[in-house]
Every structure is written in structure tokens, then in C-alpha cells.
Amino acid sequence: MFSWIGEVEVFDQVISLAESKVLTALGCSVLTVNEQGRRQALRPMMFFMAHCDAELYENLLEANWMQDLLSNMTLFGNSFEAYEQHVSECKNFRLTDSKKHILAIRQFVKELPMDSMKHIIAIRQFAKERSIDPFSDDLFCAFHGSSWHFFDIDPHSDLCDAKL
Fold first, then answer.
1. Where are the alpha helices (DSSP H) in 15-154?
2. What is the bridge-based pairing of β-strands 73-78 and 45-49?
3. pLDDT-based confidence at residue 115 (cuts at 50, 70, 90)
4. Cα torsion at 124, 62, 69, 5 (round to 10°)?
5. Which residue range(s) make up the domain with 113?
6. What is the mean pLDDT of residues 129-135?
7. Who's near 155: CB < 8 A, 6+ residues apart?
8. Is 56 contained in some domain?
9. Are the C-beta atoms of residues 52 and 23 closer than 8 Å to each other?
């Protein structure tokens, strides 16, 4: 079914057996190993990562932090611009009266430190981001905050110079 695209590999940690069978019948390879987003783009690849945690984007970028690998990637997922804005707005955040609630809830929360998004922030200078404009309520729920990301890295750019 997807012969004009090439191989389609799918991973979802909560995929059901029925979904897996349908995808296999459509010619997709259903991956069973959770790579935590660390798949290298050794050939041109499109990553569909709508509404994933920042940690998965960070892992994907870190695993592909070379010009030739990033140039193989197209990514549909959360807006990196929004992540950068959030980091910028929250870096001066101070706890006030609600400190007791925040401290009490911490044992139930898995927190992603801001510095663990360093690859997401650093790649912004090399990425072209096209936001999605959901034109109906149904699409808004599914795609709000999503963007296409295209990585056009100059072969002479040194990603090591990017501020991580």
C-alpha cells in the first residue's frame, strides 16, 4: 500500500493487538522495542510525534545531532517555538504562596528539567517550523500546538557551536 513511500515503521507504547494487526495488514512494520525516541535517521524519515513529551523530542534530537542525520528528518509534533517560549517565560519563575502545594505534589510528578530540552532549543536556529492551523473544532483537539519541522543544516555549520 505504501510502496511509493518505502518502509513504514510504527511504534506506540500503547498500541493494541487489533491496531497492530491492521497496521501489519496495511504493510507497516510494527516495532516492539521502545527506543525512547532515540531512532537515528540513517535515511530520509518522517517522524509523527504528535503530543509527545519533550523528553522524546530531546532524545530524538540528541540521537541525530549530526548534520547528515538531521537533514534526513522531517518531524510532525509539538512546536519547538512553544517550548522555547515556555523556557524563556519560566526561567525567572519564583515560587510564592503556592509553594506548599508544589512541594506536596512533587512526589507524584515526573518532572522534566528545563536543561533537558537543550537540543530542542538549540535546533531552532537550524529548523524551519510550519505551524498547523486547525480549521475545525475536531482538528483543533487533535492538532493544536503542532508543527511541521524541517531541518536544513548547512554542511559547513558546526552543531557543536549550537548553544546546548
1. 17-25, 54-63, 67-70, 80-90, 99-105, 118-123, 137-143
2. parallel
3. low
4. -90
5. 35-161
6. 70
7. 67
8. yes
9. no
pTM across the whole model: 0.69
pLDDT of residue 140: 67
**Inter-helix orientation angle 80-90/54-63, to 10°:** 110
The answer to whether 67 and 153 are in contact (CB under 8 A) is yes
Burial 47-72 (b: 16+ CB within 10 A, else e): bebeeeebebbbbbbebbbebebbbb
With vertex at residue 117, the alpha carbon angle to CA 113 and CA 120, rounded to the nearest 5 degrees, is: 165
Q: Is residue 155 part of a domain?
A: yes
Identify whether 142 is part of a domain: yes
Count CB atoms within 10 A of the CB of residue 27.
Answer: 12
Q: Give how far the C-alpha of residue 128 lies from the chain's centroid of Cα atoms, to the nearest Å.
A: 14
Cell, residue 4: 511509493
How many distinct structural domains can be found in the chain?
1
pLDDT at 78: 85
Q: Please report which confidence band the pLDDT of residue 97 belongs to, taking 50, 70 and 90 as the band edges.
A: very low
pLDDT at 64 over 80: yes
